Each structure stands twice: as structure tokens, then as C-alpha cells.
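Bug #77: duplicate submission created two jobs. Keeping one. Sequence:
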Amino acid sequence: MRTRFHAIAVAAVVLVALTACGGSAQVASKGAVKIGVDLPEALPDGAATLNGVRFAVQRAGGSVGGWALVIDHRDDTRQGGPSADAGVENVQAMLGNGDVGMIGPYTSSVAKAEIPIAAAQHFAMISPSTTQPCLTRDESFCSYHPQDLRRPNPINFFRLVTTNLEQARAMADYFYGTLGVRNVAVLDDSFPISTTMADTFEAELKRLGGTVAKHSEYKKDQQGSDFKSILLSFKDAGAQAVYASGFDFSNICIPRRQMEEIGW
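Kept job's structure:
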């Protein structure tokens, strides 16, 4: 579902931009406008998003105001995942190719590396999926800041989705308002952005009138895969549900299965 949303969102934003520029099915006669696309094409999410870009250009008739639209797409996948080094190489290649701007990247770590290169050349970036707050917001927990990335240059980075902090607030609203859950336990993996999201969730839930039964953290290199003792402490504290915040993708979903195993 997330992959499909990103593809549709990218198609929508490109269509809006093309419509604003007078996109139509008219014959291109003035030359070509090259649009850079930097995505992890070797991965399903990246491939689907690229299809969204292609769809938008197709729907625009392949041209804008007499200019042919050319998609200059480049893969930032290395060793099975998005690579910041590959992303930087791609941006440099797009600049050398005369691209007018780019769609991407898909991940925040790649964006962090690309923004300084692109900003220095006033090269616009539109990301469909990056959620790291520090890319656009000057938060106290950030180890870097938006102005550090772009230096003295104008803002050149934009995104279609909200940050992780908005996600945490939305989850608190969903627990309280939609599910009717008032007492929630919170679990995070000690990663800085994870703890910030957990704290943001907790603050929003309390603002709404809910309570946090217990808040526990774990460290990936120490916890292992057995969360039952933590879950039992949550259950004993009267929690109706658990909000898990983490980027430890190999373990963070395990508690859901183990909740069933302890009869919760």
C-alpha cells in the first residue's frame, strides 16, 4: 500500500507541475527538458515510484509547452540497499547532463548526502518519501540542521510526505480518537529518532487525555529477540495496547507476535 501511495503521489505532483507549465499532447518542437530521477530502482518501492513518474509524463502527453520531456532516471541501489555515495554520483551526473531538477531520493540518508551538492547548483529536489525531520526542521535532537546542508544557498529540497514526528502524533490521535484506547505502553529501540518519536507520541496522547502505562527502551545489540518480559510488564501495568517506535527492522515487529503468545 505504501509503495502504491508513493507512486500515485509522485504522479500527482508531476502532473500538477506539468499542468501549471502548460503540459499538453502538442508536438514538441523547442527541444528537450530533462527531469532527473534518483531512486533505488532495484528495490520494489523504487521501481514503483519510477513508474509513477513515467505515468505522469505519459499523461502529460510527453511534452510541456512545446518542450519534450525526457526522464533521466538513475539507480542509487548498492549492495541491496539505497546508497548515499551512489546518490551523490547520480546528482553530479544529472547536473552534468543538464537536468532541470530531480525527483528523489527515496531515503533520508541519501537526501542528506545529496542536498549540499544540489543546493550549491540551485538544483531542485522533490522527494516522495523521506521522513527524517532534520532535513527540513531545526530540532534540538538533530545532529545536523537544514541550513548546514544547504549552507548559504536557497531552499532546494521539498518532500511530499510528513516527517516522523507528525507520524507519531497521528498515531496518538488514532489510538485515542479512532480506537478508543486510553492507556498505552510505549516501546522504543533507543535510536535517537525512535526515542524522539516515542516521546512525541507520549506527549500527544497525554494532551488528548490518555495515559502511558509504561515506557521501556531496549538496545538492539543487547535485547535479542525475546520481548516477553517487557510485554508482561506492560500488561501488568494495565496497558491496552503498545506503541512501538524503532528502526531496528529485524526485531521491532517481533513483540506483536509475542503479545499473542502471552495471551494479550
